[in-house]
């Protein structure tokens, strides 16, 4: 039986040139592209909530077993795998790798009811991979398929983290608490992205995703008959005024040159249609890039909340303000390495331009320990209906970009570990 391109490369033991390494990455990725797409569709069909990714974890482990890649499960869900390079200088005399890179893919889904027409649509009612984490799993498995066939070109060790619970901002911190960044020299991740055209990948330096905070505001009024509003203090009215007043933070308190968002996502109040509400509460999120704006937000919200409610005869307080994730900021050297890797495997035409987003990402937790970067893998393609935003029930991706993401990650890993 004729050997596949991957098997031929594995059998070819001489030291490869940079051009040969890149060509090998392209060849193996082409061979495994159907596998990558098949994996994406499988994980898309069986989405699971944050911290409940039981089947997802098991299925990832099954793929790692098939590739003979060792792994550990430091948490109930999620996996940490290790790919050891076999280049002569990959390990020091004491057995430690000369360099170690962390690659991360998140694995959880969202509480969204899918409304697409694809044959592999979610089989788990009420949950959907509407943010593309199914693609992240598939791209990472594709990266491993590439790299496991060319370990002689890996001058160190790769730690692959399949991370649970990104959507609620807990998973990265949990993995870091398990020590996954210990002994690591750098970190790399990818996010499939609906605002970048398919075939383009954005790897620019600097802030890429925002500081993400959550808040809750409780309002206390005085209930009374709905036909006698003068006898009470309407908590719903105060809540409505607070929603509007909070928008003046962005329009009047923050410099127009500093991106910021204050969003109230929930408003709850009242018990009956003919009763002036005695209580209400709001929950929402704040997104910022600059450290100054980030630090100002809690006090600005408190001031507006307190005085707006007071003007309407009610009391209100900021009862919770939680920093979920700090911003994802790509290190300049890591971004330049990614740009060079991207040009190698896909050419200058694949270098995308993207301003960044005020969406959040807990990959920032790893970047607080080690330098690194996150790439946006474009998947927008109007011709196939892949135009809907992240978190949409209609979310679709152009699957032809998945192997490209795997190629970038593989080239980045090889280049990173080859550096002195």
TrEMBL record:
Residues binding Mn(2+): 131, 133, 167, 191, 391
Keyword Manganese part of the UniProt annotation: yes
Domain Peptidase M20 dimerisation: 213-307
Annotated protein name in UniProt: Peptidase M20 dimerisation domain-containing protein
GO molecular function, one term: metal ion binding
Organism, scientific name: Collinsella tanakaei YIT 12063
InterPro entries noted in UniProt: Amidohydrolase (IPR017439), Bact_exopeptidase_dim_dom (IPR036264), Peptidase_M20 (IPR002933), Peptidase_M20_dimer (IPR011650)
GO biological process, one term: diaminopimelate biosynthetic process
Cofactor(s) demanded: Mn(2+)
Highest taxon of source: Bacteria
Record keywords: Hydrolase, Manganese, Metal-binding
Pfam families, A to Z: M20_dimer, Peptidase_M20
């Amino acid at each position: 039986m004729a050997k596949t391109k991957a098997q031929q490369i594995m059998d070819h033991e001489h030291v490869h040139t940079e051009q040969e390494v890149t060509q090998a990455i392209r060849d193996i990725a082409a061979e495994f592209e159907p596998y990558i797409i098949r994996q994406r569709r499988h994980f898309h069909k069986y989405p699971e909530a944050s911290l409940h990714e039981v089947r997802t974890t098991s299925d990832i482990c099954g793929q790692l077993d098939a590739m003979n890649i060792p792994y550990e499960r430091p948490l109930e869900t999620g996996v940490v795998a290790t790919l050891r390079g076999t280049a002569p200088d990959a390990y020091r005399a004491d057995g430690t790798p000369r360099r170690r890179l962390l690659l991360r893919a998140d694995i959880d889904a969202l509480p969204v009811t899918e409304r697409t027409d694809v044959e592999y649509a979610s089989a788990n009612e009420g949950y959907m991979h509407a943010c593309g984490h199914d693609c992240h799993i598939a791209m990472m498995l594709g990266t491993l398929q590439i790299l496991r066939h060319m370990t002689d070109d890996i001058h160190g060790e790769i730690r692959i983290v399949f991370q649970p619970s990104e959507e609620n901002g807990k998973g990265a911190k949990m993995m870091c608490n398990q020590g996954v960044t210990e002994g690591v020299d750098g970190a790399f991740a990818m996010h499939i992205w609906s605002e970048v055209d398919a075939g383009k990948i954005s790897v620019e330096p600097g802030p890429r995703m925002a500081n993400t905070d959550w808040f809750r505001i409780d309002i206390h009024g005085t209930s009374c008959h709905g036909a006698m509003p003068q006898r009470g203090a309407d908590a719903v009215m105060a809540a409505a005024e607070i929603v509007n007043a909070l928008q003046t933070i962005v329009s009047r308190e923050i410099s127009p040159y500093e991106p910021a968002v204050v969003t109230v996502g929930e408003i709850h109040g009242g018990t009956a249609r003919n009763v002036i509400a005695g209580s209400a509460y709001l929950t929402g999120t704040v997104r910022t890039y600059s450290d100054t704006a980030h630090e100002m937000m809690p006090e600005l919200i408190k001031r507006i909340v307190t005085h707006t409610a007071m003007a309407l005869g009610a009391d209100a307080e900021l009862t919770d303000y939680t920093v979920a994730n700090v911003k994802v900021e790509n290190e300049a050297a890591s971004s330049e390495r990614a740009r060079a890797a991207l040009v190698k495997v896909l050419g200058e035409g694949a270098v995308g331009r993207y301003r960044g987003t005020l969406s959040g990402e807990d990959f920032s937790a790893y970047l607080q320990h080690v330098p690194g970067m996150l790439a946006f893998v474009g998947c927008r393609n109007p011709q196939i209906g892949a135009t809907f935003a992240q978190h949409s029930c209609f979310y679709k991706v152009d699957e032809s970009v998945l192997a490209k993401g795997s190629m970038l990650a593989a080239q980045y890993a090889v280049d990173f570990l080859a550096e002195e």
